[in-house]
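Annotated sample (chain length 119).
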Amino acid sequence: MTKGQLEAKISEALSRFEIEYMGRGPKTIRTYIIHDIIIVRLTGVLSPSEQKLTDNPQGIELFKKVRSSLFEGGRGYLETLINEIIDVAIISTHSDISTKTGEKVVVITTDKDVEDLIS
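Output written by the structure step:
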């Protein structure tokens, strides 16, 4: 499998996670593998009601808490999806979402240099 093919498979897994677990898929998604780090950039993940909620500071705080809690709760499922694609141990997973742009970034660190595993 090439690096591009692996990145595409990880993008598909993250998109599936967003749809099945978070309730809404991204408009676009792009994955970047850099040694032992996997960076996934998703756009268009906010629903219209979430966009309306983030119009004020209290709504932003509530939105961030809910999204963070949901992501933490689904972390095991996400890691399982990644492990189905590539046999690495996941050291940590980080996620943040911009309430201004609707862009979400997920950073995954692994126990191996994924680039070295690519044939």
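Annotation: The chain has four helices and four strands.
Annotation: The CA atoms of residues 18 and 25 lie 5 Å apart.
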